[in-house]
Amino acid sequence: MDPRDFHSLAVRLVAGASAAAVDCRTAIGRSYYPVFNVAADHLRQQGFRIGKGAAAHGEVQKCLSNSGEPVLATVASELNDLHTNRNRADYQLGPGDVEKPAIAQNIAAMAGRLIQYLDASFGGPKNGPIYLAIQKWRRDNGYP
Amino acid sequence: MQAIQNVAELAFPPEVRKFCEDRGVLDYLRLALQIAAQTFELHGDPLVTIETDPETDEEAVVIDVSSPLSCDEAVERKLQYTRRWVQSVPPDVIGTIRLILSIA
């Protein structure tokens, strides 16, 4: 499936100002995964062997952080923030911001922007330098 | 509600200070707070805590800030903050200090 469908679901879940708490939490969780999976897909398409387990989350973030491309470093930082929000939405079940429609809408909107950044960066003219920077970082840090 | 005036005057919880000193990122935490104060109209002091990932046990410093912004403006301001942040720190620090924006 296209991981962008997760993002479409997140947007739909909190489209109204009266979205239920469970919809807000689900939308926040579904906002993290499309960004992570789109990034991982782009990296795999470049030939990098990204892991499949829990460690892949950190691996993807580090690849983007060390890509030499400020836009991708920005995505990396935001990806970490999305992950923190996702953990709060999924594991901290007391009342909180993750149950507010405005917060969930904001997080879903950010995810959409990050997907655009990923597609533009990996599909644009900087793709070659990005590949070389990530390849060097992976070699230097023991990744295949 | 009062906007923070001086990041240097903020007192961090002991566990946050120790975490940051152990990893050599205390100055970067102050920098993140400074950029946040310059980027957002903060309501109240930022809340700085250590959060542990329940799936990986990875720890990170999390800064919670609140600013009265619309959804669209919040996305733009947050990206503005993050662009400055990632250009100001080494790549390895990016995931160690995180910022969560509330637009209440």
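qc> The longest strand of chain B covers residues 59-66.
qc> done
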